[in-house]
Amino acid sequence: ATMVQDNPYGVGLEGALVDALKAKGWTGKHVVSIHYDPAKKDYRTELGQIRDRAPDVVLAVTYAEDGIIVFKQALEMGLDKIAWLGCDGNYGPGMFAEPKCAEFMEKAIVAGTRAAGPSGATYNKFAAAYKTEFKKDSSVYCDTVYDAIKLIAQAIEKAGKYDGEAIGKALLGLGKNYDGASGTITFDDKGDRVSGTFEVWKVSKVDGTYKNVQVKIISV
Known about the structure:
By secondary structure, the protein is an alpha/beta fold. The chain has 7 helices and 9 strands. Helix 3 (about 65-75) crosses helix 4 (about 100-110) and helix 6 (about 140-160) packs across helix 7 (about 165-175).
């Protein structure tokens, strides 16, 4: 089952997961697909669909504010007996402000993923320059935004004109083992990045405090 925000972020991750599973020969059933409004304050109706279909696993694509409500109510409805998958949107200490949400995440989320922190000479150079300019450390996705802007600028220069098709073609040509701050960048024929390093995480209670704990690092 999937319970995701009704926007490109949520629906996009849902589609990517289902497509990847099918590509690997998955023969299971996607028993319920829920696209919800992240501005709502009550998700019992949506969670009731999950309870009624009793799936083996649920992918939850949320941000912190809506995720706290989803997980709190899921615990209240006894859905912590089902295995749940998290994402980058529900990673971080902000999720633990609500005790019931934190308890649910520890009990039910068997794994979550997020982009792993980059490393290497190119990233270190970027991080040092960022701190010099802004007097603080770079935050999550700063490196990917930097790479995106730099690649687009180079693609415009290579295309020689402000034409979307020409710039897109130039961008695909540049995205072949490009040494970026966020790591090596290679695009497929659709312009999607085909490589990256990701962290698999879970939630544990350490010395009485809920924390995200790294399970492993995966490079693809």
